Amino acid sequence: MKFNQAAIPLAHLWSSPFVRWQGALADVSSLDLAHAVTRDALQQRQVDLSRITQLVLGTSIPQPGSFYAVPWLAARLGMEGLTGPHLSQACATSVTCVMSAAMQVEVYPEACPLVVTTDRTSNGPLLVYPRSRSMGGSPETEHWVLDNFSADPWTGQAMIATAEAVAEEGSFTREELDALTLLRYGQYERALADGRAFQRRYMQPVLIQKGRQRIEVDADQGVHPTRAQDLAALKPAHEGARHTPGAQTHPADGTAGAVLMSVQAARAMAAGEGVVRLVTGAVARVEKARMPKAATVAAQHALHQAGLSMDDVHAVGTHNPFAVNDLWLAQQTGCPLERMNAYGCSLVYGHPQGPTGLRGLAELVHTLALRGGGVGLFTGCAAGDTGAALVIRVD
Length: 395
What we know:
Peroxisomal Thiolase, Chain A, domain 1, 6-stranded mixed sheet, alpha+beta, 22% strand
């Protein structure tokens, strides 16, 4: 899918810190989190709410009130006349939402959609499905988070099994996976330098008053320091596995957002600070139980649509729940591992699902901005052997 009109002013793309599940945000609804952070982000950027034409909401985990999520959140943000789509595509939710918003701008250049993505993996809901024909009417239950992490209902495979299958197919060793993890942690440490100067370019703190409790989160929580000797000491995820807990991400809670508009409007609003132009977007699905491959195929589709090769890309961002994701991308495309995720990635700081991609996009955008602009590629995998990618250009 090609885009010609859609853009984001550089500053109008933000993310909250990510908090490891069962941490400081464990008892905060993801919709409450989205309201607090989006409200503050819009106020800080002095966004005229009357310009917003639609709210595009992305989540992957139900929360209380989710049935009314979009109009409820819009009203709480002071936009009572707005509504819009509520989208869910597991780990590809952010890219799906951005593409949906961008299509609005392509069709209607005066459009100014607000994208909000949010999720809480902590305290996932336990769903009860009635079964009238079962013995005594006993119900079927599903823990939304844990059961779906454990197995794809179509393949019967857990996500870690897909990562192990791709690691074997790519002939990657445990040592290579650990080395990639160590590289990514070192890049994340760059984002913490000078008082977290890089992260402060896009990160919106969490400030929530919950009864008498005031919740303040200014930085990522739950990221473990990573050293080579520590990775080497970890046990495999299961017997015979090449991935350890250190070579895969952790579930988290967080939210992220963006305001899209036409290139002309974005340039006026950016006031010289820079504009993110959306070039192409693509999705892909690969063979059964090979999820980490999907990010590479989606990236190849997006680049092909843009008429570009990997050599034309100045920076790459990935959602990489497993270390093998980036190794496979490098092996298949020739992209150097060092060109990816210059300031960290979800492998290190965690994965709330819905907002993960939008935070990755924000980091990619600011990586390009610091080098004076250029072409960027964001890609990631998602449940169901799916991938989603965006090609952008920062002017």
